[in-house]
Amino acid sequence: MGDISMKQRATFSIGKFLIYIALIILSATALTPFLWMISTALKQSEYVLSIPPRFIPDPVSISSFTRLFDIFPMGRMFFNSVVVTAAALLGQLVTSAMAAYAFARIEFRFRKVLFFLYVMTLMVPYQVTVTPLFILMSKLRLVNTYGGLILPVFYSAFGVFLLHQAFLTMPRELEESAFIDGASPGIVFLRIYLPLIKPSMVTLGVLSFMGVWNSFLWPLFVIRDQEMMTLPVGLAALQGEYLTEWNMVMAGALISLVPIIIVFLLAQKYFIQGMSRSGIKN
């Protein structure tokens, strides 16, 4: 029995060791593009395309960052991205939570049909809606404004679906007890259910933040002036027709990536919980 136990432990240890090795290799593979971006951003222009390539910049230089801020209004573009993302994030959280609660907990005619039709809009490619949205923004005179950037992303069908599934996991006894005590649906929504679906709200917030912050196609259509550009659109302008200074492009990409990393690190505690709680319920 002792020999069998030792063999099982040895087999388990070898298997665990191989898993760790595989995870290290996969992690290194995933991190390599990010590390190469940092390396390129810290190189001088003459060393970016040197052969053989230099993974570690020598000498280390921040000239790409200083030139980037001298040539482009990076501060203004960053501010535009923050304003648009914050407004869209707030709008998506509020509208998605209210709509999801109504679809999941309030009985009304054609509730399931309306929810099905609303979720079906997720199957419509975003590129198909760009032209009608642009025409609508033109009619409303919102082209080249914050309103034109924010209104089309102020709601989210995916957010409604995600939070709808989270609301379905909540026991009905909670609201029944609250109704017996005289609470209204609004009080139940604000004081009972919202705190319970906090992980799902955080998950939606992270996904919405990433989607709006990295949005390129719609801002490219609706914005005309450089002062109104968001970071993704502004960074695209760094790629010249004949010559591209890749160290500046990578410096701008690194600046754009930092807020996403910070948001994810702050919210990772709730992210997995939210995804698991928002699974499809039969």
Quick gist of this model?
73% of the residues lie in helices and 0% in strands. It has two domains: 2-41; 65-277, MetI-like fold. The chain is built from 14 helices and no strands.
CATH architecture of the largest domain: Orthogonal Bundle
CATH topology of the largest domain: MetI-like fold
Reported for the largest beta sheet, the result is:
none
Shape: globular
Number of domains: 2
Query: For the terminal residues, how far apart are their CA atoms?
Result: 46 Å
Mean pLDDT, to the nearest integer, reads 84
- Count, helices: 14
Percentage of residues in strands: under 5%
Order of helices and strands: HHHHHHHHHHHHHH
| Number of E strands | 0
Text of the CATH class of the largest domain = Mainly Alpha
Share of residues in helices: over 70%
Q: What structural class do the secondary elements suggest?
A: mainly alpha
Low-pLDDT windows of residues: none
Please state the CA-atom Rg, rounded to the nearest Å.
Answer: 25 Å
How does this model look, in words?
With 282 residues, this protein is mainly alpha-helical. The protein folds into two domains: 2-41; 65-277, MetI-like (MetI-like fold, Orthogonal Bundle). Helices cover 73% and strands 0% of the residues. It is built from 14 helices and no strands. The protein has helices at residues 2-41, 45-48, 63-71, 74-105, 111-120, 126-139, 146-150, 157-168, 172-180, 185-196, 198-213, 217-222, 231-236, 246-277. The longest helix is centred in the first third of the chain and has 40 residues, at 2-41. The radius of gyration is 25 Å and the shape is globular.
